[in-house]
Amino acid sequence: MAEVVASLLADLLSFCSARASDLVASTLADTASLAAALERGAATNDIALLLKQFHDDVVASKPAVQPAVVAIQPHVTAAKNAVAKAAADVGASPFTLASAAQAAIDLATVATELDAAIAIVAHTLGNMDDPTVANRKPLVETAINAIKEPWIAPLRGLAGGVGKDFDALATQVLGLPAATGTLDTAFARNAAAREIAFTFAAGGERAPVPAF
């Protein structure tokens, strides 16, 4: 039974590791990439404009944004290291439950580092370090922290065999074919509780599935 569980976990973690690798290579490649991803996901024009200005200032190496750039860089580096470690753990031979546990820790590290990087951008644009309380913008900080785009970008438009094991499982158990392609719309994130969820639903009853 342990071998069956390990095999299932290997497939799942391999998929998650690939998505984390895409995330680090794109939305968390550097501060400018993160700002651009956040801008794309902004819910309102005023937040989008703030993020665009921040992005442009980062690209132009404006002194005002350098503290944020410097603060974000260790999180970028840590996320890249965690992705490399996750890939190594998923590819371990033999792959064991201990390997799965370590890979899960690595992927959790990527999520933690992304959250921390977003929080720095949010804190900066919310002007939360201003000694004058009236100048601080906690609503801006909250709005930026709530943006999901950096998380869902690596999940958008997946199809054509990517995550085929997950698709097969979702089809058999949930009656949802090609579920991988809907991961971006099924994604939910609670930044305050540090929780990520994917909600899938299908109408009607499902016949019992052997071995489940």
Task: Characterize this entry briefly.
It is built from nine helices and two strands, in the order H-H-H-H-H-H-H-H-H-E-E. The protein has helices at 2-25, 31-41, 45-59, 66-90, 97-125, 138-145, 149-152, 164-174, 183-186, and strands at 187-190, 195-198. A two-stranded antiparallel ribbon has the order 1-2.
Description:
It is a single chain. With 212 residues, the protein is mainly alpha-helical. The chain has nine helices and two strands; from the N terminus they run αααααααααββ. It has helices at residues 2-25, 31-41, 45-59, 66-90, 97-125, 138-145, 149-152, 164-174, 183-186; strands at 187-190, 195-198. The protein has a two-stranded antiparallel ribbon. The protein is globular.
Radius of gyration over all CA atoms, rounded: 19 Å
The arrangement of helices and strands along the chain is: HHHHHHHHHEE
Number of strands: 2
The largest β sheet comes out as: 2 strands, antiparallel
Characterize the overall form: globular
DSSP helix fraction: 55-70%
Mean pLDDT over the residues: 86
Unreliable spans: none
- Would you tell me the structural class of the helices and strands? mainly alpha
**Tally of alpha and pi helices:** 9
In which order are the strands of the major sheet placed?
1-2
Strand content: under 5%
Query: Alpha-carbon distance between the termini?
Result: 13 Å
Oligomerization: single chain
